[in-house]
Amino acid sequence: MSDAKQVTLIIDGREVTATEGEMLHDAAKQGDVEIPVFCYEPKLGEPVGACRMCLVEIEGIPKLQTSCSTPVRDGMVVHTRTDQVKHAQSAVVEFLLVNHPLDCPVCDKGGECPLQDISMGWGPGKSRMIDQKRHFEKPIELSPLVAIDRERCILCYRCVRFSQEVAEDDQLQLLERGDRTFVGTFDDRPYIAPFHGNITDLCPVGALTNYTYRFRARPWDIEQAGSVCTLCPSQCNVSFTVRDERVKRVIARDNADVDDGWLCDKGRYGFEMFNAEERVTAPRGRGAAATFEEAIATTAERLKAAGPGRVAAIVGDASNEEGYLVQRIVREALGSADVDSRVSRGPSRSSLVRLAQPEVGARVRDIDDADVILVLGIDPLHASPILDLRIRKAMRRNGARLALATERPTTLDGGADAVARYAPGEAAHFLAELKAALTDAGSSSEHSAPEARSEGAPAALAETLRDAERVVVIWGERIARDQGAVEVLLELSAALDVPGTEGSGLLEVPELANARGLREAGCLPDCGPGLTEPKRMLSTSEVQNSPFDGRGTEEIREALIAGELDGLILFGVDPVRDFSDSPAWQQAIQAAEFVVTFSTFENETTAMSDVVLPLETHAEKDGTVTHPDGRIQRVRPSAARPGDIRPNWGVLAELALSLGLDTGVSSQPTALAALADAAPIYSGLTNEEIAGRGIRWQDRPAASMRPVVEDEAAGTPSSLGDRPGEEGRSENGDGADSAKRSEGAPTSSFKLGTYRDLWTGAITELNPPLRFLAPKQRVEMSVGDAERLGLTIGDEVQVGQNGTSVTAHVDVKERVADGTVFLIEGIKGGNANALLNGGPVEVTVEKLSLPAGGAAE
Amino acid sequence: MPHRLETRVLLEHAEDPKLRTIDGYRGFGGYSSLEKAYREMEADEVLKALEDSGLRGRGGAGFSMGKKASFLPRGEMAKYLCCNADESEPGAFKDRELMQRNPHQLIEGIAIAALAADAGHAFIFIRGEYDAQADILDAAVAEAYEAGYLGTDILGTHRDLELVVHRGAGAYICGEETALLDALEGKRGNPRLKPPFPAVQGLYGGPTLINNVETLSNVPGIVGKGADWFKGFGTEQSPGTKVVSVSGCVQRPGNYEVELGIPTRELIYDLAGGPEQGHEVKAFYPGGSSSPVLTAEEGLDLPYSFEAMAEAGSMLGSGSVIVADDRVSIPHMALRTARFYHHESCGKCTPCREGTNWTVKMLERVVRGEATPMDLDIVASVQENIIGHCLCVLGDSMAMPVGAMVRKFRDEFEQVMAAAGEAQEIDPHVVVQAPPETLGATPA
């Protein structure tokens, strides 16, 4: 971006330098002049000038002007404390208080209330109003999570603007007129939307309060602790409101490089689980409590007994330091190369190295200025919610165009310029078509046959992309489950000249919150810390003979079942629930001689483990994580660890020591230092450098030590396979069978796609206030398929495959492609992971509630 | 027959029901200006004629129409013209008559103004209550399309204009030009922040010219007969004729088209018949209920022009005179006025939303006799706190007349407070007498 012009103006006699076009209110701030505001909030977009609080005098203009909406000009002379201005500001405060109940002593906002502060600073200090104030029923439920007190509302309509112009859910409206105006929803329906909690942060008075926080604390009882939310890869910056060492509230901590100052409701309300009963609060063996010392000793003994090269580890919910220590234990103390941090499979090291090149990657900020945003393979709302708002912002404010290519319909479809649906498991094939459509440049549209599977969709997408300068590709790690997809993606980005264009880039949405950090900490079978080539750590003969690269997650599962591995370390993962093919995982864990699980909560996997060790949550943890765009951020301990939980880095260092490996780690900073030593791209990194806003490693000098892209010919063949898209279809043999078998009955074969819903898992199960959002298993299908099978919304059906089946309710969706059905993963009761068998499969849908004649069988 | 003091230009032939049809209108020379403008004139010439005429907006602000049109940027972009027919100001009913009796004059004016502004789409935003008038306009617009004065390739000049009659949903605020735009776009009718002004960024973000019905109705005459002809009427700063709605305590309320600058006394007494026998004018609103009231002494002998009314501390506004005679209780009139603006405040900005509501509560106490002289000071101070601090002019529209009434008739407020019982007996409705005939331009 070109440097914006600087202008100089005088505010209250001070010379202030500001950027041309900046609003006077913001410029004044830089000159240490505070101009009070209520309605103005730059995050919400254009100023509206409604509250009239920020009136100031500008020489040469007879009437007072709202500083929130007046752009600065060179040589402007502004007065904010003249009698005329004081009179106006005091008048506005008086007007605002005409109908405000002044119930500050019982108001949750009291003590952190802009209306209080501004009344104190700019108000008349006495009341002349003796008439009856307006009354509303109060407080009432705006949603199950937010209470609204309409009497306190000063109608700044920040919340309404959020709903209409940021979240674009359009649910909040101003109803009625004049001083009878109130904020509400159509027909008094509850305001249910995934970002609606932000309105409680925005509200400048106590009109919108969280039920989870009402009457829980006063501002003088609490402390604010800045940290990072690690419930999803968005890694939003948060501030925990802590009282008596417990988290009582989560609020946004603005960081335009990460979250733009918004939070999703998952991050905001998902804190009661920190103290849930299901929390693992102490180490234990099988059915018996244990001390840390006992648990670590047993674990060390059993892992050692397995012998070198016979232990594997899978890391999930972990900080960079934790991941680093786990891979060291596996590689250096246990002589194994089998460590992974992916729920399924992923690209090879050579592709990862190419993806990690700074010119290939995009920053979150790049979304704002993109000409075209291409979303591939994910619905950002479910996978990384805050990106959904960011994409909407780019489209609304900067006119970015959106191209979407996904298996399942997304919430962004409505505003997209081009939408393509590809069949589940066909990402690689689709990307190859898209690339072909792009590079063919329309010349050979007759003989290349894109209409075969995607009905010309790749061509439409290519059309949107073709002339775009800045392209940001937001792609889901999930597409990497399809062999070769990432490699085609890299070719596609080269065709779009992503590496050569400033502002273009790829932004991954991984399946785990800290996936990038863990990969860069060395939790990959073919990468050491910093994506270096893994080193052989033990020099025993067995290890010398073992393969150079270790096994990935799915290979670990198969090796366990085959008896090729004996020990298993699970750190922050619940494969039985969250990984595809849960029956196989159950089998694998049972087959293992010894399983140690580090877990936050009790779950099906911990129930099958030999030793269970407790994990910290992101409210308790001290460590670093790496955002998908390479920003290293600090998770800082904010609340007390419940029960007998110890810092995870300490437990791992202790375990390493018991295995004869002295890591030298004695604190979080030493753990980070050890990681920084091992990973060249993190070289020299300290907590101080990361500080409150994080730092992208690509922006540090050490980035020059990143691994170089290998010669393409040498790097690709092992992983790419011969032709993408065809490989994954090998297991479909029985699909045709089942279709035949069920002829005549209301059964049909489909391609199954599974997805993770925003509200599956611990978030809704362990946070009582969020329980109402817990999804029930539903099978989404197209209108045509539902008609063909005589199914309507709500019908109960069996979705089965190879003898395993899941019960689900039918949901008919217009934008689902014919022949495809979707089920939710990780759901309690009817988990779609039970059906997946390592790739796309055929499924049958059988109506449960059949009419009398049909149920004969 | 028109009264000798009237100067019928816009309402010429108004009694002839044929005027409403396109043939009738053409029979009186209608659409010749449109033909002249489209066939013989460049957009800039039309614009210049409008600027030269000195035509001032008839909707309230009195801003030069030609100048406003010249603010629209040139260039290839979607531009719009909106005719503000949301006439909702208490006391104003002139646009209703102009649309009902002479719809084609308005359509012709719109088509010519659209040419000057290079607008391809025009809208008439008519208040929802003007149902009959909207029907008349719909019919007239259909006729104009049929005759080729609207639509594509008008008169074979390769110029297009689409004209849509849009009925409002009934809110005074939608007469505010930017609220009108929001309402037209299908949103809640709330005023927008200015700048950007509609001329730069208006309807759907495009440059937009917004004019009142009467303003646009003046356009065919100016273009057809020339700016000098137009300036032959009225005063130097207020050229032209004005359709004035006179209502309240007069014997012949109605619309009177007069040359601007006519003595106000003639307007009220000679044309509208003045108050009933034995009563005298006490005060009047010279330009609708949002203009500061003038006492009889202040105002009756002023020429009825933009400049004279402004000099007297009031305004000509939409040109709607509401007369109060010696029987009218000014405190009740103030309350009535405040109630209207309280009811119509959109609620977007603080001073208007809270100020109108607070003023009503205080004035209610005044007329109930539950107030003290200190409360009158507060009423006056609240009006001052509103003026100049609001997002649009609605707040000022209450604060200026109410402030003027408290200032000029303070004795009467104090008397009313002192004698609350007696005050109750005064019929507050006397100030809002409806005209006996819905259309009173031509007293029988």
Briefly, what is this?
The complex is a heterodimer of chains A (857) and B (444). Chain A has 857 residues and is an alpha/beta fold. Helix content of chain A is 28%, strand content 18%.
Derived from helix and strand composition plus strand pairing, the structural class of chain A reads: alpha/beta
Number of strands of chain A: 32
CATH class of the largest domain in chain B: Alpha Beta
CATH architecture of the largest domain in chain B: 3-Layer(aba) Sandwich
- Kindly report how far apart the N and C termini of chain A lie: 69 Å
Strand order of the largest sheet of chain B: 6-5-11-8-9
Strand-residue fraction of chain B? 5-15%
List the uncertain runs of chain B: 428-444
Main pleated-sheet profile of chain A: 6 strands, mixed
Total helices of chain B: the number is: 20
Averaging pLDDT over every residue of chain B, what do you get? 92
User: Mind telling me the CATH superfamily name of the largest domain in chain B?
Assistant: NADH-ubiquinone oxidoreductase 51kDa subunit
* CATH-defined architecture of the largest domain in chain A: 3-Layer(aba) Sandwich
Query: In the CATH hierarchy, what is the class of the largest domain in chain A?
Result: Alpha Beta
Rg over CA atoms of chain B: 22 Å
